[in-house]
């Protein structure tokens, strides 16, 4: 049983192997290579796991899953937050050859159902600490809807369903059976712009390269002590170089449940953290905390701060070295593949003003005009890319793939960028119908579809509005039959079961939505209305 996905054409696969990007090793190698090490791999609150323990825990769980009849080539839906079990589960599934979708902890009913509908999972692993699984309102329904599910394990669950019990029970004669390195290892989540969130198949080969190369650029080593304060399941925190990069190098990952200064500063001091990654709004909050008297000495060990996920302003960037007292690295990446970094030895101007350059010499990146033709260097247009770790198609989405890729397999990310003479990229804007709320991506169509389920809403359009902290927030423009208040809209969406960050920050009721000449909602016009209002 293999999971279908869009493969790289043979001549590309051959070249990526020849050049050593693809090494035909399973991602489990990241952990098993340290199986005999008693160095600490993960710190989660009071709990510590050495590499040996982490590997044993993953073996135990993989063995338990095999005993329950979950087979290689099947899929799993996983929802765990920033806890050690996230990595134990990830490696266990890889060892058993089961491909997970790692939903974000902020996801709710709508997202979980959408992912399950796409992958038909044999297994669900979730957390009783999440509101959805705290009682039995959701789970029985979920299992009834998704009849593919044959096993459920819950963190802090009871009896047969307890994830901890499955992790603690010693494996008997376990033999790892990861999927072949050029097959799907797991699915990454796309920030998306469509009604249903799309899944990105990632192979062992391509993901392993992305992590290995990231480690080189970011100088990750066994001495790295990394604070993981972003959602653990996010591609950035997993692979750029993220926790998996730190495991590969034999370093130590310290988990934080959120990136707040109150939580992170003491953790940095206590665990002598030297690398961490943030999104821009968290940087603002850290700077604010320091300006308000937080103890900068707590950050003394911090050598490198990565910032990415959304555009970092040059002015904020320039404050980091002095005020936080560490080196800045900009990261512009995407779960679909391509990752760009500023180099550690780049001139400060470059680090402050650009989003870096592609990490692989064989990343092909060019800028297209609206007709798909290449633009001269320096001009702003659509980012087009292909390479050894950039996917070739969303899972089971032929229609969307037809527009997301050109005929040569270049992926159009929907970002508007310019590339300078040295190959450095600046992100200038976006063409995709998405709101980037401080690094958290909202597909406008997904929320518009949910809004249209409301009986009083006739038309809905979700657009971004500028925000000084988050960069962007969301505003829903509605045409309604009866007056509706923003709180009622948010309550309605919450009842539909959607992640909190996707709820509109603002609601505007209008008589009609402006249309473009071809009759589509004119979102540009809506954003202008918002900008004018903000100035008024
Ligand atoms: P996702 O699809 O959730 O993986 O999000 C990837 C998208 O995040 C990219 O296509 C960009 O739109 C945005 N992004 C990531 N990093 C940066 C950055 N450093 N600057 C600007 N936008 C970014
Ligand atoms: O925003 C992202 O998706 C992102 C940002 C930085 C990413 O996927 C990454 C680095 O790998």
From TrEMBL:
The entry's keywords: Ligase
Pathway linked to the protein: Siderophore biosynthesis
Annotated AMP-dependent synthetase/ligase domain residues: 37-395
Pfam family of the protein (one): AMP-binding
Molecular function (Gene Ontology), one example: 2,3-dihydroxybenzoate--[aryl-carrier protein] ligase
Top-rank taxon, per record: Bacteria
Keyword Zinc-finger found: no
Domain AMP-binding enzyme C-terminal: 446-520
A single GO BP: siderophore biosynthetic process
Presence of keyword Ligase: yes
NCBIfam families: DHB_AMP_lig (TIGR02275), PRK10946.1 (NF008192)
Stated name of the protein: Enterobactin synthase component E
Originating organism: Phytobacter massiliensis
């Amino acid at each position: 049983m293999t999971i279908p996905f869009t493969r790289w054409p043979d001549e590309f696969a051959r070249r990526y192997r020849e050049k050593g990007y693809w090494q035909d090793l399973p991602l489990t190698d990241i952990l098993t290579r340290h199986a005999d090490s008693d160095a600490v791999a993960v710190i989660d609150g009071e709990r510590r796991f050495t590499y040996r323990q982490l590997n044993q825990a993953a073996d135990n769980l993989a063995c338990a899953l095999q005993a329950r009849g979950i087979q290689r080539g099947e899929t799993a839906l996983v929802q765990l937050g920033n806890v050690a079990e996230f990595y134990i589960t990830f490696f266990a599934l890889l060892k058993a050859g089961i491909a997970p979708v790692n939903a974000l902890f902020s996801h709710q009913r709508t997202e979980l159902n959408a992912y399950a509908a796409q992958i038909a999972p044999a297994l669900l692993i979730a957390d009783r600490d999440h509101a959805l699984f705290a009682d039995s309102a959701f789970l029985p329904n979920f299992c009834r809807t998704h009849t593919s599910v044959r096993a459920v394990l819950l963190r802090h669950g009871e009896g047969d369903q307890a994830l901890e019990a499955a992790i603690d029970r010693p494996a008997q004669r376990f033999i790892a059976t990861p999927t072949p390195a050029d097959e799907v290892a797991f699915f990454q989540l796309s920030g998306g712009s469509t009604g249903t969130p799309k899944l990105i198949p990632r192979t062992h080969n391509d993901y392993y390269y992305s992590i290995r190369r990231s480690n080189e650029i970011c100088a990750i080593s066994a001495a790295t002590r990394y604070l993981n304060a972003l959602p653990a399941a996010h591609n950035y925190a997993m692979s750029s170089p993220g926790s998996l990069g730190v495991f590969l190098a034999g370093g130590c990952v310290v988990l934080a449940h959120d990136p707040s200064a109150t939580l992170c500063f003491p953790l940095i001091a206590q665990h002598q953290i030297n690398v961490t990654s943030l999104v821009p709004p968290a940087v603002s909050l850290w700077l604010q905390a320091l300006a308000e008297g937080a103890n900068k000495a707590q950050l003394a060990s911090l050598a490198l701060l990565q910032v990415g996920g959304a555009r970092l302003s040059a002015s904020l960037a320039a404050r980091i070295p002095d005020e936080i007292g560490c080196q800045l690295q900009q990261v512009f990446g995407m779960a679909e593949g391509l990752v760009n970094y500023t180099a550690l030895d780049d001139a400060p101007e470059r680090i402050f003003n650009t989003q870096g350059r592609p990490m692989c010499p064989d990343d092909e990146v060019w800028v297209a005009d609206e007709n798909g033709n290449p633009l001269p260097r320096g001009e702003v247009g659509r980012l087009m890319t292909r390479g050894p770790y950039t996917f070739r198609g969303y899972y089971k989405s032929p229609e969307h793939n037809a527009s997301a890729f050109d005929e040569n397999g270049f992926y159009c990310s929907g970002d508007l960028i310019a590339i300078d003479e040295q190959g450095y990229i600046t992100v200038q804007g976006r063409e995709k119908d998405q709101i980037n709320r401080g690094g958290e991506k909202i597909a406008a169509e997904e929320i518009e579809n949910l809004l249209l389920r409301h009986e009083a809403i006739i038309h809905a359009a979700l657009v971004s509005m500028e925000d000084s902290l988050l960069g962007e927030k969301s505003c829903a423009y509605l045409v309604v039959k009866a007056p509706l208040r923003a709180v009622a809209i948010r309550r309605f969406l919450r009842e539909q079961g959607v992640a909190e960050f996707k709820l509109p920050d603002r609601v505007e009721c209008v008589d009609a939505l402006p249309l473009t000449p071809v009759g589509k909602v004119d979102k540009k016009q809506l954003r202008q209305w918002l900008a004018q209002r903000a100035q008024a």
